[in-house]
Amino acid sequence: MEKDIFKALADPSRRTLLDLLYASNGQTLNELCAPLDMSRFGVMKHLNILEEAGLITTRKVGREKLHYLNAVPIRQIYERWVSKYTESWVIGLTSLQNELERETKMENTPRHVNRIAIKATPEQVWQAITDPAKTSKFWHNCAIRSDWQIESPFELWNGEEKRAEGIILDMDPPSKLVMRWRFVSFPGTENDTPIRITWEIGSHAELKGVTLVTVVHDELEQAAHTAKIIENGFPIVLSGLKTLLETGEALAGG
To answer: Are 229 and 134 within 8 A, CB to CB?
Structure first.
């Protein structure tokens, strides 16, 4: 996988596509073709390579296919290869900042989409994201609390401090979990409206014993501070989830 990532990043046209998505996430093929001196087929080929490397993800919204940056693989490269002396440079990549101020052309367009492949079953992933003993090992030391029923509340606790609260909107174990939630203890988020997080969990179509986990954060229009926190922090959550399920160890600093 790392070989595919480095190969994808080696091409200047693909780096340009990542720059375009960095500037304005969630673009269609036509939008990405416009600033490039390249055929539509050429752009599609480069986008396919980026998606195969896990550097972008795609979502169907209505009749359009939208392309999103995926911060998780770059975060994993950082954890393995990048020294502390280059951390300031990496922050610009791992944040993969969205232009929240721009007007979206479609309603209900997802704003943050992250995907990761984990060598585990969907059932194991589901248990990890719903068991407080496990979430405390990868979700920034927060234990999740809920009775896991639709319309039931849930909370994230770091020791004696409640960090977030929300409600379960929908669930279909072990395939899907949808929650609306808000931070309660982060400075600057007091006036943010609740956002939505959707977990999509499914077996990999080609790799036996591997589960694809896709996490979508949306409804961020009135939650700019919350959006900033999750764009920086959630790739670490998913990296920690993968590390925990594949090695049994907590991610250092997670």
So the answer is: no
* Burial class of 144 by CB neighbour count within 10 A (0 to 12, 13 to 18, 19+): buried
123 contacts 249 by C-beta, under 8 angstroms: no
Q: CATH code for 2-69?
A: 1.10.10.10
For the chain, how many residues are written? 254
CA gap 34, 3 in Å, rounded: 30
For 112-247, the fitting CATH number among 3.20.20.70, 3.20.20.140, 3.40.710.10, 3.30.530.20 is 3.30.530.20
Q: What is the pLDDT of residues 217-244, one digit of tens each?
A: 999 989 999 998 998 889 899 999 999 9
Tell me what the mean pLDDT of segment 175-193 comes to.
95
The answer to whether residues 201 and 120 touch, using CB atoms and an 8 Å cutoff, is no
Rounded Cα distance between 113 and 116, Å, is 10
The burial of 249, by beta-carbon neighbours within 10 Å (0-12 exposed, 13-18 middle, 19 or more buried), is given as exposed
Strand partners, 168: 179
Say if CB 217 and CB 195 are below 8 A apart. Answer: yes
Which pLDDT tens digit goes with each residue over 83-109? 444 454 444 444 433 433 343 344 445
